[in-house]
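Saturday, quiet lab. Running sequence design on the structure tokens for the scaffold JK sent over.
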């Protein structure tokens, strides 16, 4: 008797997240993840595959957007940190100039 595979959005999202996690933590290689997807896909009834594909593409699309947002956030944080470092190195000499300027001299 064939195994029934749920094609709900939540079930597919869980499958994708488990596969991503197994790759991130090193439990599976990319080729093992691909093989898992092939086996999983073959367990889905052919009549259910169009909706499964729709949900899978939606989950992958949202995941891609999330990864891009994380990358952009990291890039912005890194740029901000570099900008603050560059700015603070310019501020210190100015503070030293003000500190050592003769009284009554406008800087």
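Result came back. Writing it out in full:
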């Amino acid at each position: 008797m064939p195994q029934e595979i749920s094609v709900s959005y939540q079930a597919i999202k869980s499958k994708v997240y488990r596969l991503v996690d197994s790759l991130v933590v090193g439990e599976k290689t990319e080729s093992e993840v691909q093989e898992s997807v092939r086996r999983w896909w073959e367990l889905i009834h052919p009549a259910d595959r169009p909706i499964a594909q729709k949900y899978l593409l939606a989950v992958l699309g949202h995941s891609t957007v999330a990864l891009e947002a994380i990358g952009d956030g990291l890039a912005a944080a890194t740029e901000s940190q570099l900008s603050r470092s560059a700015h603070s190195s310019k501020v210190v000499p100015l503070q030293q100039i003000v500190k050592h300027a003769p009284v009554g001299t406008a800087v």
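Notes for JK: Helices lie at 9-24, 30-43, 49-100. Residues 97-107 have pLDDT under 50 and may be disordered. Ask whether to fix the surface positions before the next round.
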